[in-house]
Specification:
The chain is built from 10 helices and 6 strands; from the N terminus they run H-H-H-E-E-H-H-H-E-E-H-H-H-E-E-H. The chain has 272 residues and is mostly helical. The protein has one domain. A two-stranded antiparallel sheet has the order 1-2. It has a two-stranded parallel sheet with strand order 3-4. The longest helix is centred in the N-terminal third of the chain and has 21 residues. It is globular and about 55 Å long.
C-alpha cells in the first residue's frame, strides 16, 4: 500500500465503498470449499452454558460495582461526560446489540475535522485501563442480558457485515464473548486470519472442556500476553477488509492501491 493512502483517516462512507469493491472482486473465492459450521447440540451448549453466564455475570456485577464506580469517577476527571460510549456490535445470528464501555479516548480531531488515530487519542488513564482490561468490566452487563457469553468470539462492529466468507460467518452461530484466545500456540499472534479461523474452531468444538481451556488461556493472556500490551498502546492488526485473490484474509494495511484510486482517484493529498 502506498504511504499516501491512510485508510483509517478516511471517512466511514469511503471506507465502506473500498470494502465493497474488494468484496465484489474476491469474496466469491474466499470460501475455499469450506462450508458453515455449527456448535454441537448438547446439554451444555443448549442450556448449561447460558446458566453459567447468568450466575457468573450477576456475581461479577455485584462484586465489581465499587470498581466500576471508581472507574466512572476517574473517567469523568479524565475525559468528562459522557462517561460511556456505545457501539453497535454483531451478536449471535449477526443480530445487532449495543456494547458499552467506559470512554478512554478524547474526541480530538485534525484540521479537517476527522478524528485522530486511536493511538493519538488514548489518554494515560485510557492506556492503563486497556492494559488491565478494566474497560471490559461493563461487558458483564451484556452477558447478563444475553447479548454475550463469558467465552466466545469477540463481537465485531456492524461495519464488517457482508465481509465474511460463509466459513468465517460461522463465528456468528454462537453468542460473542469477552474473548476467544488462540487455542493453538503455533498460531502465533492474533492476526485477522488467525482470529477468524480460531473463532470457527471454537464454534465447531464448543464444550465445557473447551470453555475451561479458554478461561485459562484468557487469564494467562490478560496477565502476561503480548496482545494485551499491544491493545493497551492502541495497536491493532488493522481493519478487516475481506479477502484477497487467493482467499486469504486482507487487513487495511494490505489494500492494493488500485482500490483507493478506484474510489478516490489518484490524489496525493487525500489524507492531508
Amino acid at each position: 500500500m502506498s504511504a499516501k493512502w491512510d485508510y483509517d483517516r478516511l471517512p466511514q462512507e469511503i471506507q465502506t465503498k473500498i470494502a465493497e469493491s474488494i468484496a465484489c472482486d474476491f469474496n466469491e473465492n474466499s470460501n475455499d470449499g469450506r462450508t458453515m459450521v455449527f456448535p454441537k447440540r448438547t446439554f451444555y451448549t443448549l442450556f448449561f452454558k447460558r446458566f453459567l453466564d447468568i450466575i457468573i455475570s450477576f456475581i461479577a456485577l455485584v462484586v465489581l460495582f465499587p470498581a466500576n464506580l471508581i472507574i466512572g469517577v476517574v473517567t469523568f476527571f479524565d475525559v468528562g461526560f459522557p462517561l460511556l460510549f456505545g457501539q453497535d456490535r454483531m451478536g449471535k445470528g449477526a443480530k445487532v446489540f449495543k456494547l458499552y464501555k467506559f470512554r478512554n479516548m478524547t474526541n480530538e480531531r485534525d484540521e479537517n475535522g476527522l478524528l485522530l488515530p486511536a493511538d493519538k487519542r488514548v489518554t494515560r488513564w485510557g492506556s492503563f485501563v486497556r492494559k488491565t482490561s478494566l474497560d471490559e468490566l461493563l461487558n458483564f452487563w451484556s452477558i447478563f442480558r444475553g447479548d454475550m457469553s463469558l467465552i466466545g468470539p469477540r463481537p465485531l462492529p456492524v461495519v464488517y457485515r457482508g465481509r465474511f466468507s460463509k466459513y468465517h460467518e460461522s463465528r456468528h452461530n454462537v453468542r460473542p464473548g469477552l474473548d476467544c484466545p488462540l487455542h493453538d500456540p503455533q498460531m502465533g499472534y492474533m492476526t485477522w486470519q488467525n482470529r477468524l479461523d480460531n473463532d470457527v474452531w471454537y464454534v465447531e468444538n464448543l464444550s465445557l472442556k473447551t470453555d475451561c481451556k479458554m478461561v485459562f488461556l484468557l487469564f494467562k493472556e490478560t496477565l502476561f500476553g503480548a496482545e494485551k500490551k499491544s491493545r493497551g498502546n492502541g495497536g491493532s492488526e488493522g481493519t478487516f477488509m475481506g479477502y484477497d485473490q487467493n482467499g486469504k484474509v486482507m487487513n487495511s494495511y494490505e489494500i492494493p492501491e488500485k482500490y483507493f484510486i478506484e474510489v478516490l482517484g489518484d490524489h496525493d493529498n487525500v489524507n492531508e
